[in-house]
Amino acid sequence: MVKLLSVAIISFLFSVPAAMAAEEYEEHNSLMSHGDGHLMDMGGGMVMGQNADTLPGGCEEISETKEITVRAGHKYAEKFPGRMFAFDTQEFNFKPCTKLTVHFINDDNIRHQWMMHGLPKYLYPKGMFHLEVTGPAKISGTLILPPGDKTYLVHCDIAQHMEKGMKAQLKVGKGDGDLPSIPGVTDYAIQDDYSGIQSITAAAVAGNAGAQTAAPVAATKSVPAVAPEQKDESMISGMTVIGLAIGLLLAPFLARKFKGMSASEIVAYIFDLLRSAIELIVKFLSDLVKLVISSKNKTLPGS
Fold first, then answer.
1. Which of 44, 74, 86, 108 is deepest in the core (most CB within 10 A)?
2. How far apart are CA 30 and CA 40, in angstroms?
3. How far apart are CA 249 and CA 259, in angstroms?
4. Is the CA virtual torsion 40, 41, 43, 45 positive or negative?
5. 171-227, pLDDT tens digit by residue?
6. Residue 136 and residue 93: Cα distance in Å, rounded?
C-alpha cells in the first residue's frame, strides 16, 4: 500500500508541472482580419501591419525568410539595474527585403507589445508593425522588411513600459546607427538618479548660471544683416536648382523602384524619401552649427 502511494505521489509531482507548462500560455492563432493587415480575436490578441505577400518598393524579391521568438517580461529586466520590463533580446539584424515572422511570447500577467516603427506608410498603416497580447500568452505576425540600411525602433507602447526598459532596435542591412537607451546596447539618454532632489536642483542651477554667463560673450560677435526678401529668394532659387539636379540623377533609379506600384503608393514613397532627406540635412546642419560654435568658443579670450 505504501509502495503504491509513493508511486502515485511521484507520478503526481511529475505530471502537474507538465500539465501547467502545457496550459501556461494561451495561443492566439485564430485571429479575424479587419482589413489593412489588422487582425484581432475576442481574447484581446492583436496584430497590426500583417504583410506576408506584398513587396515594399525597391524589393525585387524576398531575400530570405526568417522566424524569431521574442519573449517579454519583468524577469528579463533583472540584468539591467533600474529597469522594470524588458525583451529577452535587445538587438536584431536582418537582410533588406527579408520576410520576417515574429512569435511574441508575453511571460507577464499584464499586457505587452512588440511594436516596430518607421516602416513605409504606403504599405504599413501608420508606418508600424504591431503585436499585442495579455499574458501569459503567445501571438505571431509576419511582415516584409524594406530595402536599404536603416535602424528601426522596437518597443512596448503601454504607458511607461518603454521608459522602464522594454525597448530594442532592429537593423536592416547595416542599419543607420544605434538608438539611445537600448538596455545593454547603448547608454541611457536620461540616467536614473537616486541621490535626492537637492543634488538635482544644484546641478540645474549651475547649468543655468553657466548658460547666462556664456550669453554675453556669444552676443559680442555680430552677423551682417540680410534682408528677408533677399534671403528667401536665394534659398528658393538654390533649392530649385538642387531639386532639378537630384531629379535628373535619380530618374532612372526611381523608374525601377516604382515598377508595379500604384500612383498613391509612389506619392507616399516619395514623401518618405523627402522626409528622410530632410532629416539628414537637418542633422548635418545641426552638427555643423555645433562645430562652428565650438571652434569659435575655443578662439575667444579666456576660453
1. 86
2. 8
3. 18
4. negative
5. 999 999 999 999 999 998 887 766 665 555 556 656 655 555 444 444 444 444 545
6. 27
Spatial distance between the Cα atoms of 287 and 193, rounded to a whole number of angstroms: 29
Give the lowest-confidence range in 12-21, 24-33, 281-290: 12-21
Contacts of 273 (CB under 8 A, 6+ apart): none
| pLDDT tens string 70-123 | 999 999 999 998 899 999 999 999 999 999 999 999 999 999 999 999 999 999
Which residue segments constitute the domains of the chain, with CATH numbers given? 25-172 (2.60.40.420), 244-303 (no CATH)
How far apart (Å, rounded) are the C-alpha atoms in residues 56 and 62?
10
Model confidence at 153, pLDDT cuts 50, 70, 90, reads very high
Residue with cell 524594406: 146
pTM above 0.85, yes or no: no
The span from the CA of 239 to the CA of 236, in Å, is 5
